[in-house]
Amino acid sequence: MNGAVEAANKNMKKIIEKMTVNYKDWHEMLPFTLLAYRTSILSSTGATPYSLVYGMEAVLPIEVEIPSMREAECAKQRYEQLNLIDEKRLTALCHSQCYQQRMARTFNKKVRPREQN
C-alpha cells in the first residue's frame, strides 16, 4: 500500500494539532494520539489497526475500571476472535484494494489525455 505510512503520519499529525495548545507539548500528547489512531476505524481498511494486529478490539482504560459484559464471556470471545483473525485480515485487504481502485478511478476521471501531434 504505497503511501499508507505517509497517510498514517498525516492523520496522527492532525490529531496532535487538535490536542495541543502549544507546539512544544506535542511529545506529551503522542501516547494519546497513538491510542486514538490505533482504535479508530480507518476508511482504507474498514477496521482498526489494533484489531488487525491482535484480532480483537482494544479494551479501553475506562472499561477496565467499570465492569462490563465483556468479563462474562471474555475467554469464549477471545477464542472466537483468534479463529477469525485471518478472515478479518483478508477482509481488510479486500477492502483496501477496493479503496485503492475507487481512489484511482476518482483520480483518473480528472486526468486529461495528452494530444499527440
From TrEMBL:
Highest taxon above the source species: Eukaryota
GO molecular function: nucleic acid binding
Protein name, per record: Integrase catalytic domain-containing protein
